[in-house]
Write a structure and sequence with these properties.
The chain is mainly β and about 120 residues long. It has no helices and eleven strands. The strands form two sheets. Strands 2, 4, 5, 6, 9, 10 and 11 form a seven-stranded mixed beta sheet that branches. A four-stranded antiparallel beta sheet has the order 1-3-8-7, with no helix packed on it. The N and C termini lie far apart (about 40 Å).
Length: about 120
């Protein structure tokens, strides 16, 4: 059974930074794609970034490009999202997700497993 557990969310002022972690367990994730999504109140869940676990290639939503960095630690089976220059519009619940078929896509329906989410709140 795949489990994804996010941590690292919190309250931060605009311009600040946070690092989210996603601890993955239940299988080897080499060869898969891991993604981060977010959902603000009253809005649909949207893509933030994804990374190919095996080769480390990354892809970002335009709204976070240049501010957020996704990375992974194979030994720790953990994916990270470093978020810098945070804005109030980044406020959302952030979810980690696993794409076990390695579609490598921003489409949320292609992701097979999801974590429970971690709240990020950016004050102005």
């Amino acid at each position: 059974q795949v489990q994804l557990v996010e941590s690292g969310g919190g309250l931060v002022q605009a311009g600040g930074s946070l690092r989210l972690s996603c601890a993955a367990s239940g299988r080897t994730f080499s060869g898969y794609t891991m993604g981060w999504f977010r959902q603000a109140p009253g809005k649909e869940r949207e893509f933030v970034a994804h990374i190919s676990w095996s080769v480390g290639s990354t892809y970002y939503a335009d709204s976070v490009k240049g501010r957020f960095t996704i990375s992974r630690d194979g030994a720790a089976n953990t994916v990270y999202l470093q978020m810098n220059s945070l804005k109030p519009e980044d406020t959302a619940v952030y979810y980690c997700a696993a794409d076990l078929k390695n579609w490598g896509t921003p489409e949320r329906r292609k992701y097979d497993y999801w974590g429970q989410g971690t709240q990020v709140t950016v004050s102005s």
